[in-house]
């Protein structure tokens, strides 16, 4: 069973406070992830103003974030408390698969959101035809089909392994330099490039509208459209910030394997848990920046409290 290590001790165990910090970060992530993303899903289905075709990707992104909170993260937390993996090989493989599914599903859904916003703002006349209800369902299904297709090669490469530095069964960057480079490019660099292009075009339109460079064209950009765009833009920026360190480390190690020994263990671990933490941020961003989400959050919480009281 390639790459599976049981309860391997390593230098991090010499620092109990570090394990405590990791446990606190992960517990916080799990709680906020589950509560927040359930609120997001319920809000979209309950609130008519949020029940738009574009928010199908938001619900899909919330489901991707929930994947890790209900199965892999609790197993990682158990490994932290026991100082190593105790769940067995099968759980290791399933956990690694779901983490990969969540991560790739997240970036592909964020890409779908960016393309959707780009079409809505920059090509508004064709938006209703491009993103009809049926078409949007097909796009979301395509996102998940591509996600599964992207994660399947890990089983053939035997790259889902337990890493004692992060107490997780995850993608092993050292299995193949070429494969690691391909993963970083296809799963991170390419989607980020597409999202950057879409948001750059939107920003150009926003600036043009504000400065009224072309008053004759009179592009329609309502205040709530701009707020929604800014919300999704912040979601993208935080995802890129949280996942960039880990991807850069993987790319650097793939290009020069000697760097693997030079990178401090604490930096590698911090980059992993920083990436894990991203799964709980989106729901908080929606509530902070979107009035409709914030309003629906309050309604749902009040209903829950009244029901229990």
Number of helices: 13
Count of spatially separate domains? 1
Question: Helical residue percent?
Answer: over 70%
Query: Stretches where pLDDT falls below 50 for ≥5 residues?
Result: 1-14
For the sheet with most strands, the description reads:
2 strands, antiparallel
- Give the termini separation: 51 Å
Name given to the CATH architecture: Up-down Bundle
Strand residue percentage: under 5%
- Give me the count of strands: 2
Please describe what this structure looks like:
This protein is an all-alpha fold and 309 residues long. It has a single domain (11-308), classed as Rhopdopsin 7-helix transmembrane proteins (Up-down Bundle), CATH 1.20.1070.10. It has 13 helices and two strands; from the N terminus they run αααααααββαααααα. The chain has helices at 16-46, 55-70, 72-82, 89-122, 124-130, 133-151, 153-157, 177-211, 223-255, 259-262, 265-277, 281-289, 291-308; strands at 160-163, 168-171. A two-stranded antiparallel ribbon has the order 1-2. A hairpin with a 4-residue loop joins strand 1 and strand 2 (168-171). Helix 1 crosses helix 12. The longest helix has 35 residues, at 177-211. The protein is globular.
Key structural traits:
309 residues; two-stranded antiparallel ribbon; 76% helix; Rhopdopsin 7-helix transmembrane proteins; globular; mainly alpha
